[in-house]
């Protein structure tokens, strides 16, 4: 029996990840075509040995990437607050109020707004 092996997938490539998941789905569908319990057991063993560890590794990579991006975002936002405060300090109080400098700083310090998914 030929069970698809786990392949390298770039988590930054949505098309590659989708293709990889389609391969996994095909492997699952193949499971239901197996005739004997021995074939099913062999398939499940291979799945546990190759696919599940690969999935865990990839999800771990994605979690690390998300953590890194969140850290970088926090650093960039802190830099933005500092820059706006620094340059805004050169403006008189009239212009600070007119252009809502305090509101801009509060927005930069506030939570990151949700970004809508593409096509929504």
Q: What is the number of E strands?
A: 0
Name the shape in a single word: rod-shaped
**Residues in helices, as a percent range:** over 70%
Strand content: under 5%
Q: What is the topology?
A:
Layout: H1 14-31, H2 37-88, H3 93-98, H4 101-109
Helix pairs in contact: 2-4
Notes on the structure:
The chain has 120 residues and is an all-alpha fold. It has one domain. The protein is 71% helix and 0% strand. It contains four helices and no strands. Helix 2 runs antiparallel to helix 4. The longest helix has 52 residues. The radius of gyration is 25 Å and the shape is rod-shaped. The N terminus is likely disordered.
């Amino acid at each position: 029996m030929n069970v698809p092996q786990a392949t390298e997938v770039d988590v930054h490539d949505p098309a590659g990840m989708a293709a990889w998941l389609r391969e996994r789905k095909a492997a699952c569908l193949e499971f239901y075509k197996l005739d004997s319990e021995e074939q099913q057991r062999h398939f499940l063993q291979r799945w546990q040995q190759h696919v599940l560890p690969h999935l865990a590794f990839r999800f771990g990579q994605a979690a690390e990437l998300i953590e890194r991006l969140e850290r970088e975002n926090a650093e960039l936002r802190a830099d933005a607050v500092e820059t706006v405060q620094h340059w805004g300090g050169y403006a008189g109080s009239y212009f600070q109020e007119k252009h809502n400098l305090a509101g801009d700083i509060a927005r930069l310090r506030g939570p990151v707004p949700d970004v809508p998914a593409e096509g929504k």
